[in-house]
Amino acid sequence: MPENLPEPVPTFDLEYAPAPESTSIVSIADSYGLFIGGRWVEPRDGGSFTTVNPATEEPLAEIATAGAADVDAAVAAARSASDGWAGWSGRERSKVLYRVARLLQERAREFAVLETLDGGKPIKESRDVDLPLAAAHFFYYAGWADKLGYAFAGRRPRPLGVAGQVIPWNFPLLMASWKLAPALATGNTVVLKPAETTPLTALLLADLLAEAGVPDGVVNIITGAGETGAALVGHPDLDKVAFTGSTEVGKAIQRELASRGTRLTLELGGKAANIVFEDAAIDQAVEGVIGGIYFNQGHVCCAGSRLLLQESIADAFLTKLRRRLDTLRVGDPLDKNTDVGAINSKAQLDRITELVASGVDEGAEMYQPACTLPERGWFHAPTLFTGVSQSHRIAREEIFGPVLSVLTFRTAEEAVTKANNTPYGLSAGIWTEKGSRILWMADRMKAGVVWANTFNQFDPTSPFGGFKESGFGREGGRHGLEPYVVLEDLVSG
Ligand code: NDP
């Protein structure tokens, strides 16, 4: 063991009294309609589904299912609002987006509690990550709305028109903000479909947008399952489709749009490598690895789900990692001390369970801390696999759960080869004290985002997106404006 790694000290138990966040700030209606043209309307085919609290399996509300006629109506509303909104000055659009950001800050607690109730993520994450970042996205793009002429040198941007946006269940409000803020800043109108299991914060956002002064029809929010998403992205009157979700559905959408002129951005799955060299600050790296995979129950497209450890420190690092794993608190997402909350749905829990079983069957060694999972609700213990080979399914497939697969390497070249040995290319992490090695590695990583001595850091000013089967197009930063504009040359000839 290298000298800088002390012998592990014995673990000790810390008792935490329950610290539940009150839900009294949230009022959930029995049922919700569709938000089309600035009004709440009933779906034309009258269908609905139930959204449940994944931590208790209790129903929260009945949600309208948008059929083809509703999708049509939403796209028509967005189309008829399009010229008006595009004609607003950037300064006026900017003011509205600032108001959205400020209202999100003012109502942050309400949104955070609702997000946790509907999605199962720990309240400390909804409160300290999702809500501040959602507001930050609106602030950031509010800043661009009246400066678009400076974003693209020598060219004049104009809005595309109507965007259809489909978002997943892992960061419901944050993904809505990632999608809406740049589209609105650039003068586009939108039809947004949240995921079936997590519609409530997007529906609350509909009211907030109206309160902020977003004109009727500029944002339309329709709910439903995959069929509603398919009807939306297949609608012939869209100028742009933006999708975040699984690679499988992303490929289907790309096939569907291949024969049309509709612009497309896809933000899909990942299987990121978090690479730790022997000279890294080990305790910080352990924290980064833990946050990289167990944050949001591992329901993160850029999660560091493959840990690559340099062989010389592997044993000592794993000792520390297991010790840290033992301290994670799993349970009630509304408890402010909870680190790992509920799995978003029964279907997702089944998928995680099946992949974990495949890891055991294929011969990897599983470690789970001794933790008691709640009797009701969908939970999965944080899980660590060692003895993983590159061919194992747990090293190749996106698990989207609290499951870490550990591999080892000897040289930097080997680390690069193993890290890139995946169909995905969304993110990577490099832990070393050597700056030149960070640059050397980052140059060779086939990943859209590379973090150095940190992981899962998000900022609205920084572009995010993938290579290979992780999709294309960027969200965030100045780059995030580009998918929503047509650029005209200022100087001809
Ligand atoms: P999906 O890709 O099915 O869902 C993402 C969004 O697309 C949801 O709003 C979904 O609606 C919608 N959708 C589903 N089918 C279609 C379609 N044919 N056309 C248009 N929209 C559609 O992901 P899942 O929820 O099924 O999760 C499966 C796996 O995907 C996960 O285990 C994980 O590996 C990966 N995933 C990756 C995400 C990422 O951020 N990269 C996010 C979510 C999942 P609805 O939810 O109502 O079915």
Characteristics of this structure?
493 residues, alpha/beta, Aldehyde Dehydrogenase, Chain A, domain 1, Aldehyde Dehydrogenase, Chain A, domain 2, seven-stranded mixed sheet, six-stranded mixed sheet, 15 helices, binds NADPH dihydro-nicotinamide-adenine-dinucleotide phosphate
The percentage helix is 25-40%
Report the total helices. 15
State Rg.
23 Å
Question: Biggest sheet, strands in spatial order?
Answer: 14-15-16-13-12-17-18
CATH topology of the largest domain: Aldehyde Dehydrogenase, Chain A, domain 1
Q: Are there runs of 5+ residues with pLDDT below 50, and where?
A: none
Morphology: globular
In the CATH scheme, the class of the largest domain would be Alpha Beta
Q: Give average pLDDT, whole number.
A: 96
Q: Give a short account of the largest sheet.
A: 7 strands, mixed
Bound molecules: NADPH dihydro-nicotinamide-adenine-dinucleotide phosphate
Please give the CATH architecture of the largest domain. 3-Layer(aba) Sandwich
CATH superfamily of the largest domain: Aldehyde Dehydrogenase, Chain A, domain 1
Query: Strand pairing plus helix content: what structural class?
Result: alpha/beta
Terminal Cα span = 67 Å
